[in-house]
């Protein structure tokens, strides 16, 4: 499972991301999504940045004046009809790092989850209702398992079963 290097455009513009091998991780995540979802359009652009930049992006594009862990931007109206482009992702370091610590998982595993989550959004998956959320979580879990990353929803599913 290896992605064509031309399919992943990774930019690192925030401090802290050197804690992980972000380039290898991004390529592995793309390859796993590409393997699982046969209609993947490529390339994808991934920006690893900081919470200050994520706050600006979130405020501008979603009217939410706060940082977030991941944002997905579909390609919109591309003027070249034959150009196959999945879209853009942005991840914020401080939020990702904090969430990983709260979940007691590695930063790399959490970043992998967010990259896969974002790519699935670009492919049309969503979690606006329970049925959509269940399908998206199922796909994320399957793709992450192929990467050797544990089920990020295991705890919430266990709580629901106990509930």
Summarize the structure.
The chain is of the alpha/beta class and 163 residues long. Helix content is 49%, strand content 13%.
Features:
alpha/beta; four-stranded mixed sheet; 6 helices; 163 residues; 13% strand; globular
Shape: globular
The H-and-E topology, N to C, reads as EHEHEEHHHH
How far from one another are the termini?
Answer: 39 Å
Q: Write out the strand line-up for the largest beta sheet, numbering strands in chain order.
A: 1-2-4-3
Task: Kindly state the percentage of residues in helix.
Answer: 40-55%
Structural Rg: 15 Å
Strand content: 5-15%
Number of strands: 4
Query: Mean pLDDT, rounded to whole units?
Result: 89
Category from helices, strands and their pairing? alpha/beta
Give the biggest sheet.
Answer: 4 strands, mixed
- Poorly predicted runs are none
- Quaternary structure type: single chain
- Report the total helices: 6
Characterization of the model:
By secondary structure, the chain is an alpha/beta fold. 49% of the residues lie in helices and 13% in strands. It contains six helices and four strands; from the N terminus they run βαβαββαααα. The protein has helices spanning 22-36, 51-62, 93-103, 107-122, 130-146, 154-162, and strands at residues 8-12, 44-49, 70-73, 87-92. A four-stranded mixed beta sheet has the order 1-2-4-3, sandwiched between helices. α1 links the parallel β1 (8-12) and β2 (44-49). α1 (22-36) packs across α4 and α3 packs across α4. It is globular, with a radius of gyration of 15 Å.
